Amino acid sequence: MRLPTDELLALVDRLVRGALSADDLMGMPDVGEDDKRDALALGLYVLRQRIRRAAERAGPAGRAMALFRSFLTEAQRAELRRRRAIRIVGSAGGLYRLQPTTGSVGLLERHGSRWYEVVTYCLHDAPVAADEPVTRGLAAALGYGAAAILAATGGRMPPADLSLAHMLLLLADEGEFRRLANATDRRSETLWNGAWLRRCRASRRAAAAA
Amino acid sequence: MSEHVLETLGPSGHVSMTWNPDDPDDLARAKAEFARLKAAGFVFFEADAAPDAMPPGDQRAGPMLARGAGRLDVRRVEVPSPTARRTVATRPLQGGGA
pTM value? Predict the structure, then answer.
C-alpha cells in the first residue's frame, strides 16, 4: 500500500530539513520500500536543486543580478519578478525595456493598448584579451589573473551587469547610448495594424473551419 | 559612519569596495583605486539617491514607472568623486551586432 502523496511529500520535507535521516527513514516499518526509495530520490533532487541555485546566486551572474536589483525601486523589482524585464525612461525621454537575464535592450512604442519593441540595440563591453592594458588593469583591480578571467567568462560582463551599465548610461546620457549602440529597427506596421490582424485571424478561422 | 561604495563591473562579476570619506587613509585608498581604474579605461557613473527615495517618474507605462524609474539621479563623470555615495565603474561599451 503506497503512502498518499501529501504524506510522501511530508517525509521528503523532513528529509530535506534534516529532521529525518535516511537511516531513520529506512527503519520506519510502516513505510513501504517503494515509498522509501521515492522519498530519498525526491529529497536528493530537491537538495541538488537548492545547491545549484545557491551556486548560481553566489556566482558572477547571480551577484550581478543582485546588484542590478539594488538599483531598482520596489515597483521595478516587482516588474522584474513578473516580466523578467524592467522599463526605464532615458534622459531624453525614450522608453526602454531592459532584460537583465540576457542583457538585451530595446526601445518601446505604444500602439493601441500594447507596447512594442520597435528598435533593439547592441551595446556591450569588448571582450578583453590577455595582452591588453585594460586586461592588466582589470586583473589588478579585481584580484584575479587575466587568464583566469578570460577562461571563466569569455572576457565579457555577466548580462545583469551589462544591463546595469545600459541603465546607467540611458539615465545619464541617452544620446550617448544611442550614438554608441548598433540599432536594428524592427518597426513593422503589421505588428499593430488592426485591420491586417483581423484579416489574419479571419483567415485562420476560415482555414480551421474548412 | 557614512559608507560610500564603488562597484566595479567586470567579466568575473562586480567587486564592491567601501570607504569612509571622513577617514583620510580610506579616502586615499579610494582615490588610488579610482586612478587605477581610470588608467585601465573604465567609465564612471555616480548615483546618489536611494531608489525608493526617488521622486515620481514617468507615467506613460502606468504605475510601474510611477515611482522613480528614469529619475534615478545618475551622472556620468570623467573623474569620480570619493564623496559620492555610490559609484559604478564599467569598462567602455561599444556597439556590436544588434
Answer: 0.70
Q: What is the pLDDT of residues A3-24, one digit of tens each?
A: 899 999 999 999 988 899 889 9
Contacts of B72 in chain A (CB under 8 A): 71, 171
Tens of pLDDT, residues B16-27: 899 988 889 988
- For Cα atoms A99, B80, B21, give the angle at the middle one, nearest 5 degrees: 110
Which cell numbers hold the place of A202?
Answer: 479571419
Top residue of A89, A116, A144 to mutate, by most chain B CBs within 10 Å, is: A89
ipTM greater than cut 0.85:
no
A–B CB contacts, 8 A cutoff, strictly below: 176
Cβ contacts (< 8 Å) between B61 and chain A: which residues? Answer: 87, 95, 108, 115
